[in-house]
Structure formats: C-alpha cells, structure tokens
Amino acid sequence: MFDKSTWIKLPRNVLVGHGVLDQLGEAVDELYLSGRPLVVTSPTPNELAGDRVTEQFAADDPATVVVETASFESIERVIDTAEREDAGYLIALGGGKPIDIAKMASDHLNLGFVAVPTAASHDGIVSGRSSIPEGDTRHSVAADPPLAVVADTEILAKAPWELTTAGCADIISNYTAVKDWRLAHRLKNVEYSEYAGALSELTAEMLVDSADSIKKGHEESAWIVTKALVSSGVAMSIAGSSRPASGAEHLFSHQLDRIAPGKAIHGHQVGVGSIITEFLHSGEKGQWSDIRAALASIDAPTTASELGVSDQEVIEALTTAHTIRDRYTILGDGITEEAAIEVATATGVI
Ligand SMILES: NC(=O)C1=CN([C@@H]2O[C@H](COP(=O)(O)OP(=O)(O)OC[C@H]3O[C@@H](n4cnc5c(N)ncnc54)[C@H](O)[C@@H]3O)[C@@H](O)[C@H]2O)C=CC1
Ligand SMILES: O=C(CO)COP(=O)(O)O
Ligand SMILES: [Zn+2]
User: For residue 101, which ligand has an atom nearest its CA?
Assistant: First the structure.
C-alpha cells in the first residue's frame, strides 16, 4: 500500500524589492486576516520603519511591542501583550530576533504572522524554524512560517554590512549541509528529499555565481541574498526540517554560541564551519578552498581570528559539536582533538 504523505507549509505572499514596505498593507489584505495587528519589533528596526508599518494599518488601531532578547520571557511578553490588546495577528519587524519571537508567539496564540525583515542575516527570517536559546539548546525548532514576507531591499541594504555577509555565508553553508544530509541518508537511513536537497544546493550555487555583485552599499546585494534566503527557507519547508540548510557547520556554530557567546554571528560561524566540514568530507583536494574563496570575496570571515574567537574555542567546538543534537553528520560520533587541530590548521582557520 502506498503510504507516503507530506505537508509543506510556505508563505503565501513574498514581496522582495525596492520600496515594497509600502505594499505591506496590500499584502496583508490578501491574507484575509482580521482584527488588530500587533507589531513585534526591536528598538532599531522600530525606529527605522515602525511608523511606516503602523500607518498602513491605522484603521485597525495597531499595537506595538518592543523586544530586545531572543528569550522565552520575550515570547511571554508578546503573548501577554497580544492577549491584552486583543490582537488578531502579528507583524514581525526586524532582524532574526523579533521574527523568531513572533513566530513562536503566533504558534502559541494560534494567530497568523507576517515577517518584515530589516536585515538579511540568515534564512530563519523566512523559514518555518525558530531559534530561541533554552538551557543548553541553540538549534532551531519547528514553528509555522510567516503567512507573508515583505522584504524591502532599500531598508535591507542600509543594515550593517556584516548582517548581509552573514546571510550570504548562511546560504553558502548549504553546500556542506546537503552533503551531511546525504551522508546521513546513506549511513543512517535518514529520510532525504531530492527536491529539497537540489533546491538548497542550487540556491548556494546561484549565490556564489553572483558573488561579484555582492558589494557593500549596493542594493542589489540585498536583493540577491534575500532571494536566496527565501529559496533556502522553501527548501526547509519542503524537507519539513532544517536539514537542507543545517549540517555539521551549524552544529559547530551552535557550540560556538555556547562556548564563546556573543563573539561572532550565526552566518559567519557557519561559513567558517563549512570550510572545515567540506575538508572533512572531501579532503585536501575537495572544494573547501572554493568555499573559503567565496566567503572571502563577500567579506565574510574565514578564520578564527576574523570571527573573534580563539583557536582553542574552535577546537573545543569542533570536538564537542556532535553531542548537541540527534543529527548525524560528517562529525560522526565525534572527532579527536588531533583531527580537529589538523583540519583547522590545513584549512587556515587557526
Ligand atoms: N530561525 C532560525 O532558523 C534562525 C534563527 N537565528 C537567530 O536569529 C538571531 C540573530 O539574527 P539577527 O538578525 O542577527 O538578530 P537581531 O534581530 O538581533 O538583529 C541584529 C542587530 O541588527 C539590528 N538591525 C536589524 N535591522 C537593521 C537595519 N536595517 N539597520 C540597522 N540595524 C539593524 C538590530 O537592531 C540588532 O541590533 C539569533 O537569536 C539567532 O539565534 C539564527 C539562525 C537561524
Ligand atoms: O540556521 C538554520 C539554517 O540555516 C537553522 O538550523 P538549525 O536547525 O541548526 O538551527
Ligand atoms: Zn543558519
């Protein structure tokens, strides 16, 4: 008997481009949401675009809640505000933090939410994954994706450049994430989606092919990376997990977040992780140097010192990364300290 089934959750409206923020009201109208919107934002994005968002919903008396940290307390505060203000849906305005918080809160409240990213910092801004630190856990969990994404490249292009290069590096890391996923499929019978794997790889390839156009101050950079982030988010939706975009390089990054908190940002850490894990997959003659060159060409870090972490922190993250999640990767049951030093040295990371 045929017994396969799948449920792919995707945003319905995705607007990317110059000035599309002014079409937010129109994009929301098409979703048949009702009631008061609650804007979930953080201080800088609120200053930059809060009024442009709320004025489009003036007839529905919008409310705003400003959050600062990605924490369960912030989610509670959003839930309490939404209940007190009788919100009908949420609009997340900002980088990854307010978007993750709104994603979790809207799941809890059974309300729809719309994402208005102001930084193209990673593919969580469009995906059905949310990442809120809980105890020692740093990786994402499933949460419904936004019903719509309105990504204004004029705003995204003015965000700090390192957030854009982090978004690019998060996409480049899809190369090794897919290699890890295929490996887990072969060795551990982990379910693999050809569609999601191919889309994720193609997304990384297209971004690298456009690397020459990714330059500080060019709005086209925001356009290229945001389209890739959407595509990567779709790959995760097809897979029903973060597997197409998260392998051992992400485990390494999640460990760095615990070992060296606040020193480097997600996309930059996964980029460096990807150089290392590509070497582990394919050896000296593999494509690790292409990944390194692609990262360098878009101004993303390629070494421990560029990340602002110590060599020892890199080694500790590499040797312990396999323990943090039930996700089989090239790190297998763990690599030794000697192996970690060797690969980090051979790739010039330390
Ligand atoms: N859901 C997921 O799958 C994933 C979630 N994450 C999470 O996302 C968060 C990191 O995302 P970020 O976007 O870096 O965090 P963020 O929302 O804190 O933004 C970073 C900084 O950039 C500022 N900013 C944003 N847009 C700006 C603009 N246009 N102009 C000037 N400043 C602007 C913010 O005010 C903030 O200070 C972390 O909590 C991380 O754990 C990371 C990877 C994946
Ligand atoms: O960052 C992500 C994909 O780029 C999400 O992956 P994780 O599930 O490892 O948090
Ligand atoms: Zn990522």
Answer: 1
CATH number of the domain that residue 61 is part of: 3.40.50.1970
Same domain, residue pair 192 and 325: yes
Cα of 97 vs centre of ligand 1, distance in Å, is: 5
Instruction: Tell me the whole-structure pTM to 2 decimals.
Output: 0.98
In a domain, 231, yes or no: yes
- For residue 251, give the nearest of 176, 190, 192, 198 by alpha carbon: 176
The reply to whether 7 falls in a domain is no
For a substitution probing ligand 2, which of 121, 131, 258 has the most ligand atoms within 8 Å of its CB?
131
pLDDT digits (tens, 9 = 90+) for 180-221: 999 999 999 999 999 999 999 999 999 999 999 999 989 999
Q: Range of 308's domain?
A: 162-346
Name the residue among 97, 107, 43 with its Cα closest to residue 70.
Answer: 97
> Does the model's ipTM exceed the 0.85 cut?
yes
* Ligand 2 pocket, CB under 6 A: 122-124, 129, 131, 139-140, 170, 242, 245-246, 250
If we measure between CA atoms, which residue out of 151, 293, 299 comes closest to residue 228?
151
The closest residue, in CA terms, to atom 4 on ligand 2 is 245
Per-residue tokens: 188:
């551990």
